Amino acid sequence: MVILGVDLGKARTGVAVCDKSELLASPVEVVNEHNRERLLERVAQLAKDHRAEQIVVGLPRNMDGSEGESAQNARAFGAELAEKTGLPVDFSDERGTTITAHGFLNETNTRGKRRKATVDAVAATIILQDYLDYRRNRKG
């Protein structure tokens, strides 16, 4: 099944997608949008363009596992996205994904504006890949 991964941010939102076999997540784009309605429209359009059958939104939990304002915002966004697209929306713990994304970008020596433009898409890819791995392990 094709799944769209979303790393919701205040200024930029990363989007990733996986192949139909659910093996590999790949970055799609970073949406630079502050307006929530336009952001919802763009992510819904990307889901449609990629023929996504499900959406996974990163859930920014606190390090102790509790959920704060950012997690509540992600859950609300996910609910709005489910309503707009008619697709099931799940959530995946995103603790540490941005740090991991920066690590990957350090390894590839991605710097400056290019780094800023890609880090959120890389984080969305990590969120989605973690979710795919979780699903695979749950089935196995």
Structure description:
By secondary structure, the chain is α/β, with parallel strands linked by helices. Helices cover 50% and strands 22% of the residues. It contains four helices and five strands; from the N terminus they run E-E-E-H-E-H-E-H-H. The protein has helices spanning 36-49, 69-85, 97-107, 112-139; strands spanning 3-7, 12-18, 25-32, 54-59, 89-93. A five-stranded mixed beta sheet has the order 3-2-1-4-5, sandwiched between helices. A hairpin with a 6-residue loop joins strand 2 (12-18) and strand 3. Helix 3 (97-107) packs across helix 4 (112-139). The mean pLDDT is 91.
The oligomeric state of the chains shown is single chain
Largest sheet: 5 strands, mixed
The SSE order reads EEEHEHEHH
Counting DSSP E segments of at least 2 residues, the number of strands comes to: 5
- The N- to C-terminal Cα distance equals 17 Å
The share of residues in helices is 40-55%
| Radius of gyration over all CA atoms, rounded | 14 Å
Strand neighbour order, sheet with most strands? 3-2-1-4-5
Overall average pLDDT: 91
Shape field: globular
What proportion strand?
Answer: 15-25%
Give the low-pLDDT segments. none
Counted by DSSP, the helix tally is: 4
Judged by helices, strands and strand pairing, the structural class is alpha/beta
